[in-house]
Amino acid sequence: MEEAVTDQQILDHLERTTLLADGGLETSLIFGRGIDLPLFAAFPLIESEDGIAELRRYFEPFLTLAAERGLGYILEAPTWRASRKWADELGIAPDRLARINHQSIRFLEGLREEFRGRVDPILISGCIGPRDDGHHPDRLISAEYAQTYHSDQAAVFAESGVDLISAMTITGVGEAVGIVKAVRDLGLPVVISFTLETDGNLPTGEPLGEAISRTDELTDGGPTFYMVNCAHPTHVGPAVAGSGGWRERVRGLRCNASRLSHDELDQAEELNSGDPVDFGIQHRRLRTSLPNVRVLGGCCGTDRSHVAQLRDAWLAP
């Protein structure tokens, strides 16, 4: 276990290099490898040797993409669903849940050792997901409730020695604020990644710029930086058009392969993986609007081919 980095060290890394990330973990395992993931939860895999082997086979090609171009990497824990509500529905007791979150970080530390000297830096991130469905929030939760709810998982990550905590597919400002406060109470860097609908707004209807500005206002600029995930690049475009200093706070993109809406994706019986080449092209068109983006990966429907095209398109002169 290595000493966790500071906010400034993370930002310094982003000034020096691009950090890649993985693609669509859950969709890759379900549709690509035929693995059953009840409730879209990958975290129980960490409890078995076969599950760990599947996770290793999934992550290693993405780390190799970083090694090929001398880039850094953010290793995101497979713990997006590993919080109380989802564990309760899966019949997983709190002590077992804490153990899984801890073991997930140990697994990532092993991967970092395997790629030490080939990829630098490699940051380990504890991944937190929304309490409710990331596409269709059942109800908005207050910042106070979110802070209490997410504090248990964040505390396990802090004890496990993560470099940062990333909250992915966040649908509203209240939950974002609560997560930031829970993580900051532990003294760790925190990243907030909002999800967008096809119109470029959050599922709550709030514009991305307003969500970032309000979250910063209510947390005294608490997030180390912001990201967008689980939306196609063409859905991000309208959200970041125009002006606004808030765009400088967006430093990462993890987009979906498909242009379909969240509703359409949820109803689809087959994986829509889109066109990896077009995926890269559409990202490149965002470079002017998002000049500070240095974290690049995928989300639903993406695999190594999408991240490879994204990497090359974004880094091209």
CATH topology: TIM Barrel
CATH class reads Alpha Beta
Largest sheet: 8 strands, parallel, barrel
* Secondary-structure element string: HEHHEHHEHEHEHEHEHHEH
Task: Note the beta-strand portion.
Answer: 5-15%
The radius of gyration computed from the alpha-carbon positions, rounded to a whole number of angstroms, is 18 Å
**Secondary structure tally, helices:** 12
Coarse structural class: alpha/beta
Distance between the ends? 37 Å
List the helices and strands and how they pair.
Layout: H1 7-16, E1 19-20, H2 25-33, H3 49-69, E2 72-76, H4 84-90, H5 94-114, E3 122-128, H6 143-160, E4 164-170, H7 173-184, E5 190-194, H8 208-219, E6 225-229, H9 233-240, E7 250-255, H10 262-267, H11 276-284, E8 295-298, H12 304-315
Parallel strand pairs: 1-2, 1-8, 2-3, 3-4, 4-5, 5-6, 6-7, 7-8
Helix pairs in contact: 5-6, 6-7, 7-8, 11-12
